[in-house]
Amino acid sequence: MSFPRVVIIGCGFGGLFAAQALRKAPVTLTVIDRTNHHLFTPLLYQVATAGLSAPDISAPVRHILGRQRNATMLMVEAARVEAQKHAVVLQDGSELAYDYLIVAAGSVNHYFGHDEWAAHAPGLKTLAEALEIRTRILNAYEEAERAEDPRERAAWLTFIVIGGGATGVELAGTLAEIARHTLRGEFRRIDPGKARVVLIEGSDRVLPPYTPELSEKARRQLERLGVTVWLGRRVTGVDADGVTMGGERLEAKTVIWAAGVTSSPLGRTLGVPVDRAGRVPVERDLSVTGHPEILVVGDLAAVESVPAIAPAAKQMGRHAALNIRRSLDGKARLPFQYRDYGQLATIGRNAAVAMIGKLRFSGYPAWLLWLLAHIYFLINFRNRLVVMSEWAWSYWTYQRYARIIISPPKK
Amino acid sequence: MSFPRVVIIGCGFGGLFAAQALRKAPVTLTVIDRTNHHLFTPLLYQVATAGLSAPDISAPVRHILGRQRNATMLMVEAARVEAQKHAVVLQDGSELAYDYLIVAAGSVNHYFGHDEWAAHAPGLKTLAEALEIRTRILNAYEEAERAEDPRERAAWLTFIVIGGGATGVELAGTLAEIARHTLRGEFRRIDPGKARVVLIEGSDRVLPPYTPELSEKARRQLERLGVTVWLGRRVTGVDADGVTMGGERLEAKTVIWAAGVTSSPLGRTLGVPVDRAGRVPVERDLSVTGHPEILVVGDLAAVESVPAIAPAAKQMGRHAALNIRRSLDGKARLPFQYRDYGQLATIGRNAAVAMIGKLRFSGYPAWLLWLLAHIYFLINFRNRLVVMSEWAWSYWTYQRYARIIISPPKK
User: Fold this and answer.
1) ipTM of the predicted assembly exceeds 0.90
2) Is the Cβ pair A53, B53 closer than 8 Å?
């Protein structure tokens, strides 16, 4: 007798928690991902800013699922889903047949039709991108130290973050700390404390999902850390030497893109119309209309009033697994209900904002809560210990231990 | 009044210890390196085999020298030395004038006239190379798990290390441990324990600088760990699918080069004939004949009966600095005398060989000494704590925390 085949595409929070929730189910599970690791994305900005090393926030999926005997992990990339055929077509053309499919392919950077900006302003979705950003940031100070021309030096000492969401705010706050504290006293020709960190946001406030009061508090905390916050500026051009906003121009050699993501293109192969953000509309049980055997979870799923954050993806992943188990047992599926445990965004040392239930608070208490929550949720116990000791060390010394330029930046 | 200008090329053990020994000297010191970090090379094989992360064994030179007010660090690459002109010419064509020059440029991988082998068999000299090797090793198991053809699967599960010196022995021993322990139970289609690790050495024993008895002990320890040791085999070809030794052929998708290094090409620009290994012959005070203002230290210096190991480079670096200080004080220079504190080579868990004075020992006591010595010498205190906790964790769990494939391997 052979078990029903379940395929899960993607090993982010949605895919991994779905896989683990199928631990005891009588299925043959195949989990695919184009990388070999689950990534703790909420801390990816720390890798990009040299606070943590890549392995600190990632764990091999193979190791996490090692003891789950019904699961096979394959490091392959899905090209498209053939919904009629019940098969996932891989990049190499081979096919993976399924009885149930969970699509947890997440999102990718989105440049609003200006893909040519990507080379000058990398986004922050993968470890490779985080290391590329780290290299660019560290290399900029090295170039500034060498530069003879004052204008060139100023451009190397200007750091622009485009986008005032959670990622942009975290990056800008940390960049300011690096300039003012981490690098202090280590250069002879430049003063890193004079570096400019500019956060550009198109709307009229940072952190739009939060209340206007918290957005205002976040902006003030950013400015206290040394970040220049420009609101209501629309970026119209990004090139190797800076950013253009309509008639305005800011020269900078380092630009980071945190202004937008769109859902994985895989969503468009499911045969249903996707929404403007590329997300797949789903039924209340998380399945695709007309295809109860395909469930979509995480950033790729369009579920009303559910934010694109890790806890939501986890809950959807677990719920999709639950509904597959119920179908196997001949039971009716249950509708997905999002449990809102609140939202937290960190800005920098002792600076954060929090919305927990009806509570809204900011500053040190919010930062402490953020710290504890993130250490707690780092999946792997080993990581938790190491990250804690590294953070304690960095907090007292202002040092960032991953300040390593492995290869020169790509030109 | 301006101070004499001292330039140091290279921030390995020789260059860094020379710079630190000039801490209180009345000089204007410029330290250049093509990377931004000092690398603890004795543990580089641990990065290549996923035991440590890159930042664990590296520290920004700028941070190490941050408080040394007479020192400026520049991340630039030297192209050549113009000895007559007392200037170092950089890659961008600009020049750095010196009154004293310490050349500590080290060594590079050497393929004995077969540079085309480099693409198929990366060597282990830099962090970038270590991460490339790590990616290839981890990716090989992923490919094996996917492979349908038994012959292809076998080639992905064969790992060849060319060269039986200290680096080759460390790599082979660790590769065997990964196959037999780290990955156990995590694959469904292959048994990683069946992977073959073959160490190929041209001479008739591994670890030639050690006594024949210790070489034999090392060989036996390697075989006990699961390594196949082939002695007296000369490699005549390396390609994408394996290694040829005369009429013999071994198919393997992963080949690592540990068979040889040659001195930095910078040595050939000093205007004196170099030896067969590209090393620069030096006077007893470590200066270049006819150029008392140029001193050569570390792997680049040809000093009789001084091994190419970190402690020797440190001693030479300190001695070169001492002799510059003596020249500034109008004192006669002192001849360099190498203090031999012994040599240690690790092979794997509880396996190592040691020669300390007249003592020769192997196995667990040698391994323990190796462990303590390496933790002690890791330059930076933070690193020491983190590495210790990581090793303790790995020792008990057999896990290797840096098992992360950041980008797919280059084709």
Assistant:
1) yes
2) yes
